[in-house]
Amino acid sequence: MINRNFTFYNVGAYTYLLHLYHVPFIVVSYPLLNRIVQHAFCNVGYQIIISLALTYILFMITRKYKSLRFICGGK
């Protein structure tokens, strides 16, 4: 029927880190952002952006230092 090959990016470790660490990043950033940002929708948006950014930084650190791969389950 359909004979098409698809290629996907290997994002297993990043999604695993995002799943584990997005809540702690949001919980820690909420009181800090609440003092700075008064608009509730902006506060939520900033929390999501901060969570994605910090998780990506953590992902890049685990890619660079192989000894820290245990943080993302060795992926």
Write the layout of secondary structure elements.
Elements: H1 12-36, H2 40-64
Helix pairs in contact: 1-2
Explain the overall architecture.
The protein has helices at residues 12-36, 40-64. It is mostly helical and 75 residues long. The N and C termini lie far apart (35 Å).
Short description:
This protein has helices at residues 12-36, 40-64.
In terms of DSSP E residues, the strand content is: under 5%
Bulk shape: flat
Overall mean pLDDT stands at 85
| DSSP helix fraction | 55-70%
SSE series: HH
Can you tag this structure with a few keywords?
75 residues, mainly alpha, 2 helices, 0% strand
